[in-house]
Amino acid sequence: QVTLVESGGALVQAGESLRLSCAASRSIRNIASMAWHRQAPGKQREFVAAFTSDGSTNYAVSVEGRFTISRDDARNMVYLQMNSLKPEDTAVYYCRAFFQLKVYWGQGTQVTVSS
Q1: Which of 63, 73, 94, 98 has its CA 20 to 30 A from that of 31?
Q2: What is the CB neighbour count within 10 angstroms for residue 34?
Q3: Interatomic CA distance for residues 104 and 97, integer angstroms
Q4: What is the C-alpha to C-alpha distance for residues 107 and 22, in angstroms, rounded to an integer?
């Protein structure tokens, strides 16, 4: 089992940066995939960025070049650095882990970008 806790969400102005953190309850070295998703009001949850099982990274087209996913295996942490934020990035951001054929989600952290 994996417990995920996100933090770092805030209200920011367009163009500013923010870093989200996801703390995992177990070693992320053993987790096949770690990812960030987001859900805007009235919309479905969507993929943002991920580490795959081979260690490579994937990004949604809408965030590529602005967002960077990173990890600290020693601290069991995954981060999402978000630069050049836009109002359309406003959403609840969720950390997701795929471990032993199960998907685990954190509780989410709110990011609001004002214009």
Answers
A1: 63
A2: 25
A3: 5
A4: 10
- Report which secondary-structure segment, H or E, holds 76: none
CA distances, 79 to each of 25, 95, 114, 115 (Å) = 15, 9, 22, 24
**Geometric angle at alpha carbon 99, from 50 and 6, rounded to 5°:** 55
Strand partners, 15: none
Q: What percent of the chain has pLDDT over 90?
A: 93
Looking at residue 55, its pLDDT comes to 82
Per the listing, tokens 């004002």 go with: 114
Alpha-carbon span 9 to 108, nearest angstrom: 9
pLDDT value at residue 30: 86
pLDDT digits (tens, 9 = 90+) for 59-109: 999 999 999 999 999 999 999 999 999 999 999 999 999 999 999 999 999
Distance CA 98, CA 79 (A): 16
